[in-house]
Amino acid sequence: MRQRVQSVIDRHRGVLFYAQFAPALVLAALAWWCDTPWLGLWAPAIVAGVGIAPAAGAMSNEMTAITRRAFVPNLVVNFGKATPTVGAMLANAKSASGGYSSITIPVSLSALTVAQTSDFSGGFNAPQTLNGIQAAEGNLKIYVVPIGYNSIEGLLQMDAAVVSRIQAVMNDSGNQLGQTLSTALFTNATNGTQNIDGFPLMAGTSGTYLNIDRGANAAWRGLTQSVGAAVVPTREQLLTAIMRATVSGGGARPTHGIMGPGTWTYAAQQFLPLEQFVMKPGGRTFADVANGPESAFSAFSVSGVPIYVDMDMPEGELLLFNARYTCFYMHEGAAFVFTGFASSLPNSALGYVGCVVLVMEAVSAKPSTVARFTGYASISML
C-alpha cells in the first residue's frame, strides 16, 4: 500500500515542485490579478427528464448505470474576490532577509544643514551639527496555510481523477493568502499586529509607525482627511484630493489611486457625459472602425494619476499613494514556499501534512505620500 500511495504522490510531484521552486511572486500576481481563478469546488448531480436525458424511472436508472458523465476537466471558483492591488504589489515586491527588525530603513526627518546668504567677502557662519536621521524599523509577518493530503483520497483518484484534488487545494492556498493579504492591506489601522500593516495605518496622522513616533516627527505623518458627507466624487473633487496628497508628500505625486467599485463607478459617471467619439480619418460610419466605438474605461486618469477599482477598498473613500515609497517586502527564504509533505502516521492517520509559508510586510518608507480621503458618495452595486 505504501508503494501505491507513493505512486499517487509522484503523480502530483509537478504541482509540489511548482509550489516550492517556481517564481512564486509572478505566479501569485498573475493568478490574483485575474477576476476569476480557474479552480474551485463543484459537485455534479444527475438531472433526469431534462433535455435529452430520460425521465426518472427504469430507463433513467439503467442509462445512469452504464453511461459515464461528461465532466468538464476543470473546476470553476464561485467565491472569493479579485485582489488586483495585492497582485500588482507582489509583482514589484522587494527582498528582505533575517535578523531582528528585518526591515530597517534609514529615514531623514529633518534638515542636516542650514543654508545661508553671503556677500562679497564670501564669509559664512560655522556649520552646525544637526541630527535628523532615524531608523524606521519593522518585523516581517508570517502567514501559514496548512495542506493536508489524505492517502485514501489519493488511492480513490488514482487513474480516475477528472481534476486532481491536491492541485485544487494547492491553488486555493494561494487564493486564500491573496484574500487575507488584501483584507489586511485595506483595513489594518493598528500598529504592531500580526497582520501586515494596512494603508489606514500608513496614512495615519498620530501614534507610532515603524517604531517612529509621529507626534514628535511631523514629517512621518500620513494624510487622512474627510471631504464631507456623501460628496459627489467629481473631477474637481478628485483633482483637489490629488493636489493635497502631492503637497503632503512634499511634491511627490501619487502614482496610483484606488476606490471601491461603487465609489469608482459614481466617479466614472461624472466623466461619461463628456465623452466624444472620434472616427477614423475618412470613416463615415461606426462600421468603418475595426472594433467599433470605444466607450468608458477600465481606469480613469485625473491629472495624470490613474485611479483603479479594488473590491476590498472601503466604499466612500479614495486612497492615493506613491509606489516608489510604498511596497511589499518579502523574506527571500519564505516567499510562498511549500515545506514539503511529512507523514501524519505519528498522529495515527494515513496521509501527509505540509504548509505553504509566506513571510512579508507592507511598508511605506515615506508615509507622507500615502493619503486617504473619506466622505465620498457611492452607489450600490448589488
Task: Give a description of the structure.
The chain has 382 residues and is an alpha+beta fold. Helix content is 27%, strand content 24%. The two termini are 52 Å apart. It has helices spanning 2-11, 13-21, 24-33, 58-66, 84-91, 151-157, 165-187, 199-202, 235-248, 261-269, and strands at 94-96, 103-108, 133-138, 141-150, 208-209, 212-213, 223-231, 256-259, 300-302, 305-309, 317-321, 326-338, 342-343, 351-364, 371-376. A hairpin with a 7-residue loop joins strand 13 and strand 14. Helix 3 runs antiparallel to helix 5. It is built from 10 helices and 15 strands. The protein is flat. Strands 7-15-11-8-10-9 form a 6-stranded mixed β-sheet. Strands 1, 4, 12, 13 and 14 form a 5-stranded mixed β-sheet that branches.
